[in-house]
C-alpha cells in the first residue's frame, strides 16, 4: 500500500503481537520504527496520513529496551586493560558477541593500570553507535587507579595512585586523555577527592564510588560534590555497620532532609547479580531499600564466554572455575563471567520483582545514570530503536539496534 | 425502526459491532470513516490534535490503532481550521464525493441530542459550528479534571439533516440516564427539543440499547421488540463469505469478495 508520508520516505516497520515495556509496564501495544527511532503511530496516522510498510508478527514476545552494561572489563578472550596495538578489534569482537546477551550499548571498563596503558588504550576508544557490527560504545569506565589499598580487590597494588599532590592535574596526567571517558570510579576518602569529583562532574563524567573504605559522611560529601554512582555495591567497600553504614548507607541518603544532596539527584548503585558476588538476601535488601537506583552490571572479564581456565585481567592472572572467577591462587573475586541476560534473570528470581523492574534495572536505570534516557533505555517515541525480543523466561530471542535486527536466536535449538 | 434490546452494555456493544461488521462485508464497503463531531473552543485555542481528550486521541486509542484502515480514508472535522464554516462546508462536500453516508453510527445525550445537535437545533441543519448546552459542558468536565473553564464551549458537528441523508442510521443508547431520552426519541413525537426523534422519519433506523435504557418505555413497546429478537439476531450471524475466508488480515482497500 503506498504510504503518503509528508515527513520522510524511509520505510516504516510495525512490530505487532507483542508486549512492550513502556511507562514502567508491559503494555499490549504495537511498536513502530522509522529511521532508527521509535515512531509515534498516532502522529503518523493523523498528521502524515502514513501507515506501515512492513508488519512483523512478534509471536507474543516481550519487547524491552536494549540492555546497557556500564561495567564490563572484556570477554571472549579480550581484556580491555591490556595495551595492544589492535585494541579496536578487541572492542569490536566483544561488542559483536554481547549482542546475543541483549546488550546494545556498553562502557568498556579498564581496571587499575599503569599510566602507559591508559595512554596507549584510551585514544583507541571512540564513542560510536551500535549496529550490525556490534553494540554501541558509550565511553570508557575507568575503575582505578585512585582507589583504596585496603579494598583493592583484584586490582594490582603497585599501580594504585593518589592525587593528593596535584588533584585533577594528577588524574589527567595519569589517564592522558578524558575525551571518551564516561565513568570514573574512585575512593572518596582520598585527600582532595572533592576537587577531583567536581572537575570530573563539570566535564560531564559520571563519578562512581568504589574500592573504598569511606565512611558514610565521606561518601555523602562525595555525592554533594557530584558523585552519582556506587561501583558494585557491597563488594570492595566497608560492610554495612549499624553505627556507620559506610557507602552502603547512601542507598537512603536522598530521604534525609538534613543531608545537603541536591534535590532530584539520585544515587545509583551497580550490582553484579550473578549469584556469587552478592548473596540473594543482600541483593533483596538493597533493592527494597532503593529500587529506583539499582543498575545491573556484569563486571565481566576476558574469560566470559570461554571455557574455564586462566585468563588475564590487566596486570593480573585470573582463574575461572564455573561461575567463580578468582585471582589465580587466591579466593579474591575478580570480575565475573556472567552475561547481562543471565544477570537480569537471576535478579528477577532472587528478588521476586516484576519482569518490568528486572528489565528496567538493565536498561532504564543505566540510561538515567548516564543522563541519556531521552534517547536510550526506553521505548518512548523518538528514542533510539535499540530493543530486544524476549520470551517469558527473559531469554533474549532477538536484538535490534536502530531498528535493524542485529542478532537472532537460532531457531533450531527450539 | 428496529429496536434491539440487549441485557447490558457489553452485549449491546457486541451486537452493534457484529452488525457493523456484517454491513461492511455484505455491502463490500470500503470503510471510509467520517468522524462526525469534533470539539473546539472559540475563546481558547482549539483542542490540539494530541490532547489526550481530543477526538483524535480517543479514536486512535479505541479504534484506529486496532484496525487496518488507511488514514486517507479517515475524515475528522478540524476544530483548529482557520475558517470553521468553510471547514464544515468542505466536510459536506467530502461526504457527497464519497457517495454519501452508507451507515451512520452514533449515540445520544441525556438531552436527546444526536452528534452535537443540542435541543433547539433545526431538524434540517447541516454541518456547522454549534454552541454546547450547559448539560453537555458539565458532562464533559470529567475529561478536563473537573475544571469547567477548560471545557470547550463550541463544537463542529454534522447537522440533523446531514445524518438524515445517510442510507442507514444506527443509534447506541445504554444506561438508565439515557432512558428518558430514548422514550422521547421513539415514543413521543418528532420534536426539535429532542433531535434524535428526527429519525422517526428515516426509512432505515436501528436503535441498539441495554435494559436500563428502556426504563422509561412502555412495557408493550419493550415486549414487542424483544419478541422480534429472533428475527433481528439473524442480522448479526457470521456471513457465509466470512466463514469461507477465515480470519485473515488484509489491507483496508481490498474489498472482501462474496
Automatic annotation (TrEMBL), chain A:
GO biological-process terms attached to the record: N-acetylglucosamine catabolic process; N-acetylneuraminate catabolic process; negative regulation of UDP-N-acetylglucosamine biosynthetic process
Tell me the ranges covered by the Amidohydrolase-related domain, including all copies. Answer: 62-406
According to the record, the signal peptide region is: none
Question: Does the keyword field hold Lipid metabolism?
Answer: no
Cofactors that this protein relies on: a divalent metal cation
Its EC number is: 3.5.1.25
Which pathway or pathways does this protein act in? Amino-sugar metabolism; N-acetylneuraminate degradation
| Catalytic activities | N-acetyl-D-glucosamine 6-phosphate + H2O = D-glucosamine 6-phosphate + acetate
Detail which positions bind Zn(2+). 143, 211, 232
- Family classification: Belongs to the metallo-dependent hydrolases superfamily. NagA family.
Q: What is this protein called?
A: N-acetylglucosamine-6-phosphate deacetylase
Q: What organism is the protein native to?
A: Nesospiza acunhae
| Lineage of origin | Eukaryota, Metazoa, Chordata, Craniata, Vertebrata
UniProtKB/TrEMBL annotation, chain B:
Transmembrane segments in this chain: where?
27-47
Note whether Ribosomal protein occurs among the keywords.
no
The EC code for this enzyme is 3.5.99.6
Identify the Gene3D superfamilies for this entry: 3.40.50.1360
One MF term in GO for this entry?
A: identical protein binding
- Which superkingdom heads the taxonomic lineage of this protein's source? Eukaryota
Q: Which UniProt keywords apply?
A: Carbohydrate metabolism, Cytoplasm, Hydrolase, Isomerase, Membrane, Phosphoprotein, Transmembrane, Transmembrane helix
Q: Where in the cell is it found?
A: Cytoplasm
The UniProt catalytic activity note for this protein reads: alpha-D-glucosamine 6-phosphate + H2O = beta-D-fructose 6-phosphate + NH4(+)
Annotated Glucosamine/galactosamine-6-phosphate isomerase domain residues: 47-202
Q: What is one GO biological process annotated to this record?
A: glucosamine catabolic process
Q: What class of enzyme is it?
A: hydrolase
GO CC: one term?
cytoplasm
Entry coiled-coil feature ranges: none
Query: Which InterPro entries does the UniProt record give?
Result: Glc/Gal-6P_isomerase, Glucosamine6P_isomerase, Glucosamine6P_isomerase_CS, NagB/RpiA_transferase-like
Alphabetical list of SUPFAM superfamilies matching this protein: NagB/RpiA/CoA transferase-like
- Name the family the entry cites: Belongs to the glucosamine/galactosamine-6-phosphate isomerase family.
Function as written in the Swiss-Prot or TrEMBL entry: Catalyzes the reversible conversion of alpha-D-glucosamine 6-phosphate (GlcN-6P) into beta-D-fructose 6-phosphate (Fru-6P) and ammonium ion, a regulatory reaction step in de novo uridine diphosphate-N-acetyl-alpha-D-glucosamine (UDP-GlcNAc) biosynthesis via hexosamine pathway. Deamination is coupled to aldo-keto isomerization mediating the metabolic flux from UDP-GlcNAc toward Fru-6P. At high ammonium level can drive amination and isomerization of Fru-6P toward hexosamines and UDP-GlcNAc synthesis.
Quaternary state and interactors: Homohexamer.
Protein name, please? Answer: Glucosamine-6-phosphate isomerase
Organism of provenance: Nesospiza acunhae
In the UniProt record, the gene name given for this protein reads: Gnpda1
Amino acid at each position: 500500500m503506498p504510504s503518503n508520508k509528508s515527513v520522510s520516505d524511509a520505510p516504516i516497520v510495525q512490530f505487532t503481537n507483542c508486549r512492550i515495556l513502556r511507562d514502567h509496564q508491559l503494555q499490549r501495544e504495537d511498536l513502530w520504527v522509522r529511521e532508527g527511532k521509535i515512531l509515534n503511530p498516532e502522529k503518523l496516522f493523523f498528521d502524515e496520513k502514513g501507515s506501515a510498510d512492513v508488519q512483523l508478527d512478534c509471536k507474543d514476545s516481550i519487547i524491552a529496551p536494549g540492555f546497557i552494561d556500564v561495567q564490563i572489563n572484556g570477554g571472549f578472550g579480550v581484556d580491555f586493560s591490556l595495551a595492544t596495538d589492535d585494541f579496536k578489534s578487541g572492542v569490536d569482537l566483544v561488542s559483536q558477541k554481547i549482542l546475543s546477551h541483549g546488550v546494545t550499548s556498553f562502557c568498556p571498563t579498564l581496571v587499575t593500570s599503569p599510566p602507559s596503558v591508559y595512554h596507549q588504550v584510551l585514544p583507541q576508544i571512540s564513542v560510536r553507535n551500535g549496529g550490525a557490527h556490534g553494540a554501541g560504545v558509550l565511553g570508557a569506565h575507568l575503575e582505578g587507579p585512585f582507589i583504596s589499598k585496603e579494598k583493592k580487590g583484584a586490582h594490582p597494588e603497585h599501580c594504585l595512585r593518589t592525587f593528593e599532590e596535584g588533584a585533577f592535574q594528577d588524574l589527567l596526567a595519569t589517564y592522558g586523555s578524558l575525551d571518551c571517558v564516561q565513568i570514573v570510579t574512585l575512593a572518596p576518602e582520598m585527600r582532595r577527592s572533592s576537587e577531583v569529583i567536581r572537575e570530573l562532574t563539570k566535564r560531564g563524567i559520571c563519578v562512581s564510588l568504589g574500592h573504598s573504605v569511606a565512611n558514610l559522611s565521606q561518601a555523602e560529601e562525595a555525592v554533594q560534590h557530584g558523585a552519582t554512582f556506587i561501583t558494585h555495591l557491597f563488594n570492595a567497600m566497608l560492610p554495612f555497620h549499624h553505627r556507620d553504614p559506610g557507602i552502603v548507607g547512601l542507598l537512603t541518603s536522598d530521604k534525609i532532609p538534613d543531608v545537603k544532596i541536591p534535590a532530584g539527584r539520585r544515587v545509583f548503585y551497580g550490582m553484579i547479580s550473578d549469584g556469587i558476588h552478592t548473596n540473594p538476601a543482600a541483593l533483596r535488601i538493597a533493592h527494597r531499600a532503593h529500587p529506583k537506583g539499582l543498575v545491573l552490571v556484569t563486571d565481566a572479564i576476558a574469560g566470559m564466554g570461554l571455557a574455564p581456565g586462566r585468563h588475564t585481567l590487566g596486570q593480573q592472572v585470573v582463574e575461572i572455575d564455573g561461575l567463580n572467577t578468582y585471582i589465580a591462587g587466591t579466593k579474591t573475586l575478580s570480575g565475573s563471567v556472567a552475561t547481562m541476560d543471565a544477570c537480569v534473570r537471576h535478579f528477577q528470581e532472587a528478588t521476586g520483582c516484576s519482569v518490568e523492574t528486572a528489565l528496567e534495572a538493565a536498561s532504564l536505570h543505566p540510561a538515567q545514570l548516564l543522563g541519556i534516557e531521552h534517547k536510550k533505555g526506553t521505548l518512548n517515541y523518538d528514542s533510539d530503536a535499540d530493543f530486544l525480543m524476549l520470551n517469558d523466561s527473559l531469554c533474549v530471542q532477538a536484538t535490534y539496534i536502530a531498528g535493524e535486527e542485529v542478532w537472532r536466536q537460532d531457531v533450531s535449538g527450539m | 425502526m428496529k429496536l434491539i434490546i440487549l441485557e447490558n452494555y457489553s452485549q449491546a456493544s457486541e451486537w452493534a459491532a457484529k452488525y457493523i461488521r456484517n454491513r461492511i462485508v455484505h455491502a463490500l464497503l470500503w470503510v471510509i470513516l467520517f468522524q462526525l463531531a469534533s470539539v473546539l473552543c472559540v475563546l481558547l485555542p482549539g483542542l490540539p490534535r494530541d490532547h489526550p481528550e481530543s477526538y483524535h486521541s480517543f479514536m486512535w486509542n479505541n479504534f484506529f490503532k486496532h484496525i487496518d484502515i488507511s488514514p486517507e480514508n479517515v475524515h475528522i472535522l478540524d476544530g483548529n481550521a482557520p475558517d470553521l464554516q468553510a471547514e464544515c462546508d468542505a466536510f459536506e462536500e467530502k461526504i457527497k464525493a464519497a457517495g454519501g453516508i452508507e451507515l451512520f453510527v452514533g449515540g445520544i445525550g441525556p438531552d436527546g441530542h444526536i452528534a452535537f445537535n443540542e435541543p433547539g437545533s433545526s431538524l434540517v441543519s447541516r454541518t456547522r459550528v454549534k454552541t454546547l448546552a450547559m448539560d453537555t459542558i458539565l458532562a464533559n468536565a470529567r475529561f478536563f479534571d473537573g475544571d469547567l473553564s477548560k471545557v470547550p464551549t463550541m463544537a463542529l458537528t454534522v447537522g440533523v439533516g446531514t445524518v438524515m441523508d445517510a442510507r442507514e442510521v444506527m443509534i447506541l443508547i445504554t444506561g438508565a440516564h439515557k432512558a428518558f431520552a430514548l422514550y422521547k426519541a421513539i415514543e413521543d413525537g418528532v420534536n426539535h427539543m429532542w433531535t434524535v426523534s428526527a429519525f422517526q422519519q428515516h426509512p432505515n433506523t436501528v436503535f441498539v440499547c441495554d435494559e436500563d435504557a428502556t426504563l422509561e418505555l412502555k412495557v408493550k413497546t419493550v415486549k414487542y421488540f424483544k419478541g422480534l429478537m429472533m428475527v433481528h439476531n439473524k442480522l448479526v450471524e457470521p456471513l457465509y463469505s466470512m466463514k469461507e475466508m477465515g480470519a485473515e488480515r488484509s489491507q483496508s482497500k481490498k474489498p472482501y469478495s462474496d
